Amino acid sequence: MRILLAEDERTLHRILKKRLTEEGWSVDGCFDGEETLDYLRAAPYDAVILDVMMPKRDGFSVLAEARREGIDAPVLFLTARDGIEDRVRGLDLGASDYLVKPFAMAELLARVRALLRRSGGASGSVLTAGDVRLDLAAHTVTRGGEPVALSAREYALLEYLMHNKNHVLSREQIEDHIWNADYEGGTNVVDVYISYLRKKLDGGRAEKLILTMRGRGYLLRDPGKDGGEE
């Protein structure tokens, strides 16, 4: 899933981006309010971590403008200001959550996972498709009860497919959500990682879950639902 991190304190920004990336998420980073709006206008994000006190435009102003423009990505505010008035203001502007600095990294990650579940339409911490089970909290995947070892990028790809199971996703949609703005790889990167994921998830099994929809993209289906063409 793709996250925008807007935090102007460079050391904290670096630590957060590294930890979020280790979770398998694609992360774009920015350092002031104007840059944050530029990123929000340029790409879809599954969650935004937004510092309140930033140069050029503060987080409240950024969120208000984003909502006026119809940008509805869920937002987690980060701030050293813990007054109830600030929290109420942020939530009234359309923020989904609020975390006061200093905070524990484990809590931040748990709150981001909750945002991503909501943005993906999931109500719990486990995603399923047939006999595939993806545990968002434990960061594990099984099929038929057997563990499936995935790289961080493969895990992110599977998570995105499972959030959108039974829906066709174009290569462009997948690339926009799984790779960040700095990516300069090959044009067939989506196909390559779909191939990696298929080998680990579907390899040697009669029932294939990841389908190619010719000319349209890819679909992860639940068995018993209408699928697509190989």
Could you characterize the architecture of this molecule?
By secondary structure, this protein is of the alpha/beta class. It has two domains: 2-119, Response regulator (Rossmann fold), CATH 3.40.50.2300; 126-220, Arc Repressor Mutant, subunit A (Orthogonal Bundle). Helices cover 40% and strands 20% of the residues. It contains eight helices and eleven strands. The protein has helices at residues 10-22, 33-42, 59-68, 84-93, 105-119, 152-163, 171-178, 189-201, and strands spanning 2-6, 26-30, 47-51, 75-79, 97-100, 126-129, 132-135, 140-143, 146-147, 210-213, 217-220. The strands form three sheets. It has a five-stranded parallel β-sheet, with helices on both faces. Strand 6 and strand 7 form a beta hairpin. Helix 2 packs parallel to helix 3 (59-68) and helix 6 crosses helix 8. It is elongated and about 55 Å long. It starts with a strand and ends in a 10-residue tail after the last strand. The model is unreliable at 226-230 (pLDDT under 50).
What percent of residues adopt helix (DSSP H or I)?
A: 25-40%
Count of discrete domains:
2
Beta strands, count: 11
Give the strand line-up of the largest sheet: 2-1-3-4-5
Note poorly predicted spans: 226-230
Q: Give the end-to-end Cα distance, rounded to a whole number of Å.
A: 25 Å
Topology as a string of helices (H) and strands (E): EHEHEHEHEHEEEEHHHEE
Quick description:
The chain is of the alpha/beta class and about 230 residues long. The chain is built from eight helices and eleven strands.
